Amino acid sequence: MGRPAGVAALVALALLAPVAAHAESPRALASSKASLSVGYPNDGSIVRAKRLRPSPHLVILEKSKDRSYAYPSLVLMLQRSAKQIAKAFKGAKLVVGDLSAKDGGPLSGHHSHQSGRDADIAFYARDPKGRVVQPKKFVAYGADGKAKDKSGLVFDDALNWALVESFAKDHRAGLAYIFISKPLKARLLAYANRHDKHRKNVEKVQALFVQPDGAEPHDDHFHVRIRCPKGQEDVCKEQPK
């Protein structure tokens, strides 16, 4: 993919443009303190990222605690959805993996997650007794909903649909994609189509579901990505799926 400008140049533009605007108005001065998503998801950085923190509704994997930074609207979307799911399903907690490093940039184990617009989220699951669990790592599931690691965990159709439906209805963050394996995508859509109250949102959710060619199967977590923030078109760059 061609890059019209290097990340360093985009960062310089992002930082200098607000400075030039300082003399124009107090509003322009205030805007210079805003967070910025710079460059591409796989070649970028973040200016003034917001940190996602644990809550009664949300936990962060131990390995990801220093990788919990993102553009503010993504962090707020995760917090809103976690609270909403916990209210509807007793004992449910959103388990979040990697977002980005504090300043963005390359993140080990990922091609993307560089510009503060990506987040990895564990699937909601139940144990063999039907109890909601909070996994301490990502667990892969097959088309039958059973954990591939023979742990006995089961992919929770209702909870996972509630999460993606929540994301799809939350227009404040500007969600662009939900990466998920094709078998689990089919499973969730089949679940929603069996329930009248969910069927009306199937088209909206389906438009977000993606499994990029040549990428990992995303059978052990959701990977969500938001669009470039409005007004940052000069420094933030969209990346084709």
Measured by DSSP, the beta-strand proportion falls in 15-25%
> Helix fraction?
25-40%
What's the total helix number? 7
The gross shape turns out to be globular
Query: N-to-C SSE series?
Result: HHEEEEEHEEEEEHEHHHEE
Keywords summarizing the entry:
single chain, 241 residues, alpha+beta, Muramoyl-pentapeptide Carboxypeptidase, domain 2, 4-stranded mixed β-sheet, 3-stranded antiparallel β-sheet, 30% helix
Describe this protein's structure.
The chain has one domain: Muramoyl-pentapeptide Carboxypeptidase, domain 2 (2-Layer Sandwich), CATH 3.30.1380.10. A hairpin with a 2-residue loop joins strand 1 and strand 2. Residues about 15-30 have low confidence and may be disordered. Helix content is about 30%, strand content about 20%. The chain contains seven helices and 13 strands. It starts with 6 loop residues before the first helix and ends in a 15-residue tail after the last strand. The protein has about 240 residues and is of the alpha+beta class. It has a four-stranded mixed beta sheet, covered by helices on one side. It has a three-stranded antiparallel beta sheet with strand order 9-8-10. A two-stranded antiparallel ribbon has the order 1-2.
